[in-house]
């Protein structure tokens, strides 16, 4: 076998290795685009939560229940928390609320420091639509965290007179990687950003394969609600992490009818994944070795040993 033939075989082997690496990179990028989660922390005056599961049990240290009247009572005298014309106010006291799966509630922070929980639907028979639970300001300012599980809308449409809008916050998109799982079980940060005041944010599942697959739905999230603990930056602090699947985040702004969709793509994965960057560097080194091999003569004995090694791995007739 001539030197030229030996050299051609060696170059072919190196080329096959480079192709194999490229294939693994493609697998890593495609797999990573499905296993994604969003991490959100926001300071807001309002939020809406569609509760799921059976873990939404809230121990409220002191709360006032305002039950919506079937008919207005024009002669009723207002209490300290609720307008008596449309609400019947109960005495303040501790209460444990076990929210049923499927209930939808609205959270509001009032400028007096209190937190208002308005029942929108699905909480019967304990609560009916329109009922309100109010945690007084002096209690909420030091209240323990309240856990939440469900679909969360951070903020609300802002307009003149709105008092339940999103103030500020930070979000991160993290996703799993087939290649990274060989070295460590982790979710890699692929994209992040800040919320602007007045935006409305919500995480949704996204269809796979360019719109083919299951229809979109609000993503399930796990998190907690806490007081701000900062008098200069009042509001509710909502911190949550979403389920891990194919996801995207929807952002809406006042006056804009079309929502903005945040969906990390393959380019985000390439630019942020250390495994892919390392593999790309290795591919570059291999390409350089091939180019050097074309110009640097090698000993016939070295070629013979390399060929013998690969022939033992892949014998003829296999």
Automatic annotation (TrEMBL):
Superkingdom, according to UniProt?
A: Bacteria
Q: Which residues cross the membrane?
A: 12-34, 270-290
Mind listing the UniProt keywords for this protein, alphabetically? Membrane, Transmembrane, Transmembrane helix
Q: What is this protein called?
A: MacB-like periplasmic core domain-containing protein
* Source species: Salipiger mangrovisoli
């Amino acid at each position: 076998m001539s030197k030229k033939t030996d050299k051609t075989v060696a170059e072919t082997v190196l080329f096959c290795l480079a192709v194999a690496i490229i294939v693994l990179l493609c697998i890593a990028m495609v797999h990573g685009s499905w296993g994604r989660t969003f991490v959100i922390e926001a300071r807001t005056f309002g939020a809406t939560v569609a509760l799921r599961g059976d873990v939404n049990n809230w121990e409220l240290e002191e709360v006032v229940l305002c039950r919506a009247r079937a008919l207005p009572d024009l002669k009723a005298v207002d209490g300290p928390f609720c307008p008596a014309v449309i609400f019947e106010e109960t005495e303040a006291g501790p209460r444990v609320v076990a929210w049923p799966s499927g209930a939808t509630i609205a959270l509001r922070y009032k400028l007096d420091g209190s937190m208002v929980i308005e029942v929108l639907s699905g909480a019967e028979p304990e609560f009916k639509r329109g009922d309100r639970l109010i945690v007084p300001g002096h209690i909420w300012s030091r209240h323990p965290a309240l856990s939440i599980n469900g679909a969360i809308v951070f903020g609300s449409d802002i307009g003149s007179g709105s008092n339940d809008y999103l103030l500020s916050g930070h979000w991160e998109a993290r996703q799993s990687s087939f290649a990274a799982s060989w070295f460590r079980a982790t979710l890699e940060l692929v994209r992040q950003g800040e919320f602007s005041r007045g935006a409305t944010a919500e995480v949704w599942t996204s269809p796979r394969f360019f719109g083919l697959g299951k229809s979109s739905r609000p993503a399930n999230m796990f998190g907690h609600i806490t007081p701000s603990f900062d008098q200069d930056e009042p509001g509710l602090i909502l911190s949550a992490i979403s389920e891990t699947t194919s996801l995207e985040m929807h952002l809406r702004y006042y006056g804009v009818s079309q929502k903005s969709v945040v969906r990390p793509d393959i380019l985000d994965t390439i630019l942020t994944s250390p495994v892919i960057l390392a593999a790309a560097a290795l591919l570059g080194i291999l390409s350089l070795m091939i180019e050097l091999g074309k110009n640097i003569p090698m000993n016939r004995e070295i070629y013979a040993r390399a060929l013998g090694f690969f022939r033992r791995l892949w014998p003829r007739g296999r």
